[in-house]
Specification:
194 residues, seven-stranded mixed sheet, 8 helices, alpha/beta
Length: 194
């Protein structure tokens, strides 16, 4: 089974995970608060690369940001579009490669990427492309982790990759249960680069 087929198959149940669907108002508010702490004032232009079912895109659009989303799994994109339409949100979501998104260089204020960098065949190249999308003063927000399964990317390695291209890198570990719907035993974090 191809990776795309796998994620297409996951789309129908993807939002059942507390940190994916954000159906719990407390979890949703925790994510909104965390992200808003690191975003410029609304409205700003955000791309959500590897947006999945569009939950974070919707969260930011509700706060007045101009958001575009991209995912390589068509079923995820369909779910994101349906979610945005149902909420009355104007979010463009397209099928595409997060490693080489079809956006102009210097066209956004924020690049948001959640649980995607670790899966890129060439993470350094993907980061170069993402950084190039940013306007001067733009922000890169990466939600990543080193999971108990052995997958993922550790905070130290991620910070080194981003630090090779950007001067300001900060990491906030996210061990709090509120973000994940329960206790975790692995490393999860938000990396912010301004």
């Amino acid at each position: 089974m191809s990776e795309r087929n796998y994620w297409d198959g996951e789309a129908a149940t993807f939002d059942q995970e507390p940190d994916h669907g954000l159906s719990d108002p407390v979890t949703r508010e925790a994510w909104r608060s965390l992200l808003c702490e690191h975003l410029p004032s609304a409205p700003c232009d955000v791309v959500d690369l590897g947006c999945g079912t569009g939950t974070l895109s919707a969260l930011l659009a509700r706060d007045g940001h101009r958001v575009r989303g991209l995912d390589f799994a068509p079923a995820m994109v369909d779910a994101a579009r349906a979610k945005h339409v149902a909420a009355g949100l104007d979010v463009e979501v397209v099928v595409g490669d997060a490693g080489d998104p079809p956006y102009d260089e210097g066209s956004v204020d924020v690049v948001l990427v959640r649980h995607v960098l670790w899966a890129m065949p060439d993470p350094a190249q993907a980061l170069r492309r993402w950084v190039a999308l940013l306007r001067p003063g733009g922000r890169l927000l990466l939600v990543e982790g080193r999971w108990h399964t052995g997958g993922g990317i550790g905070a130290e390695d991620c910070a080194a990759l981003v630090g090779a291209q950007r001067d300001h890198v900060e990491v906030r570990l996210l061990p709090e249960e509120v973000f994940w719907g329960g206790p975790i035993t692995d490393e999860r974090y938000l990396l912010v680069s301004r």
